Amino acid sequence: MIHPLDSVISGSYILAIFGIGLWTGLRHQQRTKDDGAGAYFLASKSLRWPMIGLALFASNISCVHLVSLAQSGFDTGLLNGNFEWMASLVLILLALFFAPYYIRSGVTTLPDFLEQRYDRASRDWLTGVSIASAIIVHISFSLLAGGIVLETLFAVDMYTGVIAISVITAIYTIVGGLSAVVVTESIQTIVLVVGALIISVAAYDQMGGWQEMESVLKQTHQLEKLSMMRPADDGSGMPWYAVFLGYPVLGIWYWCADQTIVQRVLGAKDEYHARMGPLFCGFIKILPVFIFVLPGLFAYTLAQTGRLDLSVLKNPASGEIHTKGIYTLMITQLLPTGLIGILVAALLSGLMSQISGALNSISTLVSYDLYQRYRPDTTDRQLIRVGKISAGLALLVSLLILPLLNRYESIFNGLNDIIAHLAPPITCVFLLGIFWKKASAISAKITLWFGSALGFVVFVLAKLAPQSIIGNVPFLMVAFYLFCFCVMLQVVLSKTFPDAAPSRLQLLYWKTTSDLPAAWGSYQWLSLLLGCVMGLLFWWFR
């Protein structure tokens, strides 16, 4: 249990966010009446790059990241920081190549883009997958991590705690739409980063600095924990080649083709802001390795020296240490009263921003890609009502599947394991759709269907026979192999069943290098700078 003062601080924060979100939503009610559904779902396409960048970061970073990246830092060192830094490189792709085509096409959702580029069947399939992934990946896993935090710190039942937070978040999200989501996410990003910095500084100070930590790792023969580029025979299942081959498959789906994330870009004021927002987020993504992963590594060395008591994480029956709770343990043992409340507020920020973003994307997908299809003459008011109802139902489903996801030993690995089997066909059809004009409609449809079915079969076989050949393949390499299969399938099918009139797609794919601007602008230079910074960081922590 934490001190009453900390409970007051964290409770006040929740109420403040609820008030700001509700106020923002009510303030935009008139705009919704004037501009219709576009104001509710896409904030009237008025978002500027600073808000887009902050909202992208907040939509990605949730309790899952704070809790599970600290756990991974404790267990494997800086290794899972690859997921954060590789994301910066993928965000460059979003800014340079994907975002302009999304904005030029004027789409409301990414399934809508697939219909314009391919056909209706591709849109329908992506809609279903996007709704399911938003429920499982973005909401349920976040609720699971948030439940662990609330149970550990406040001694409340996990499900009671997450239901309360979910209801509060759902109210302002459903009332305010994307405007409320983006405003609250921008605030939550700042609170989250400040809170993470506090625990990082506290762990660093308690350890006595970087050299002391390195000395402990040397004594315990664990210096490899400081390396992000592991050799081919590394037991972690994430050697360097798996990171560079497998992560882009996951990352391009997540950052460039997932409605929950990209919806902020679709709400951009213009193409410039749609490009600059992801780049701004790419620079912010440098921080998580130092403020989310590194504290877990400090926790490991503190435990080795007896300055962090792990006994409360021990299972009484087996005697094993359950490292899922390592982040909350650090909060309670390393921070004084008052600062604990701020850290709890930061954790809740991540949880609430993830839920709000996912609910808004689900409501958009259901309204535009499902309901409006069967009722094309529906009014904006009806679209908004359907979106609000669908958001409430999605939250209920997310709560019901929590017990199934809780079976994963590592939340972060469980999350990425699911994405690795889900992403390959979607990444394939978006990449070929943007960069290859001959990618045909029938090839995309079959690739999505068959690729998704194959991913599901591989996932089930790996779980039923974990010691089999399939079960022993690292999930990043599973994603890469599935992606290669999908690319070959779509290329062969595109050659066999070409589209009759590709000229109708001129605004939706990369034609030649003439698509590049004649002179470099700010976003090109920023992309180059971000790429160079990431290259230096990977080399330093190789």
TrEMBL record:
It comes from Siphonobacter curvatus. The keyword Membrane applies. It comes from the Bacteria. The chain crosses the membrane at residues 6-26, 47-70, 85-104, 125-150, 162-183, 190-207, 238-257, 278-303, 326-348, 383-406, 442-461, 473-493, 523-541. Pfam families: SSF. This is Sodium:solute symporter. The keyword Transmembrane helix applies. GO terms for cellular component: plasma membrane. Its main location: membrane. It is found in: Membrane. NCBIfam families: sss. It is a multi-pass membrane protein. One of its GO terms (molecular function) is D-glucose:sodium symporter activity. Belongs to the sodium:solute symporter (SSF) (TC 2.A.21) family. Keywords: Membrane, Transmembrane, Transmembrane helix.
